[in-house]
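Researcher: Go.
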Amino acid sequence: MPPQPPPKAPRPPFGSQISIDAKGNLSVGALWQKWTRHVSQCTVQTLDQTGRRVTVTRALTIGLFALGAKKKTGHVTVIVATQAGETKVHKVPANFAEQTLTWAVAFNLWHQAVYGF
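Model: Structure:
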């Protein structure tokens, strides 16, 4: 049997300003602040004022149910690290918190399966 190609890396959430190329290099940020490296680990911290609040527009459109449909505010922090010890801290809007956390777990599992560390 021919050897199986390694699985593709999981795609980061759209709008998080994180992207990954075919070689497994991760790019964080946009334009002149773009940081591209071969990343070995991603960590997500959710302690940066990630809150939920009720907006006037939501209260007027859905009434009492606005208490259950609160708007997410703040940021989550994504920390990416290379094997050499370089790190980059990147803030992602709270709207993408769940998707970003899911992606980070999938990325770490993918990296461990492909590279063994």
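Model: Residues 48-55 have pLDDT under 50 and may be disordered.
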